[in-house]
User: Fold this.
Amino acid sequence: MTAMVVLDSKPDMSAPITIAASDVDTLRNSRSRLPVGTVLTREHAMLLALMSSENRAAHALARSYPGGLRAFVDAMNRKARSLGMNETHFEDPTGLTSNNVSTAADLAKMVAAAHNYSQIRDFTTTSGATVEIHGRVEEFHNTNALIRNHNSAWDIGLSKTGYIQEAGKCLVMQARVAEKPVVIVLLDSAGAMTRIGDAQRIKHWMESASLGRRSSPV
Assistant:
């Protein structure tokens, strides 16, 4: 949602934004590889937010929105309503607060809408990238192991992981499975790899069901 609202404002993606002290997560004290003072293009900030779940980059994108952070969150909620996400409410752009709430059905609507944005498709399915930070080249990787695994049999069009303690390990994807486009929403997985295993099981079940239908006598 953060990425859609940023792109809807049609900003200059090559313009620089600076990681500020206000972008530091003081709620969860989550780690970041972007020190205060880091200067990124808006495009690189979005890449790191989507690919590597860099919360400081996501917060900086929202903070630099016309009207500031409050206007950005208001725009997130307007966008949610426009997509029919009636059980969804946002209070911050990073997903770190448990006051952000939604349902699997609403998230499926969001994923379907986000898939219409080429930059979101490209950035969420990038396995890794290098970004210069304070004169040093740093490597960042996708938080979804299915994207990082180049031998994966998946055809993924969009992907995003998420985690806070209250929500558990989460994963949303748009993918092509059994020759059909599908949206997969996995919430509250217990273990680090459970969401990946569940996605694999869904894929296997769909492919097996499809093969069974093709093999049935008529």
Remarks:
- The chain has eight helices and seven strands.
- The first helix runs from residue 2 to 8.
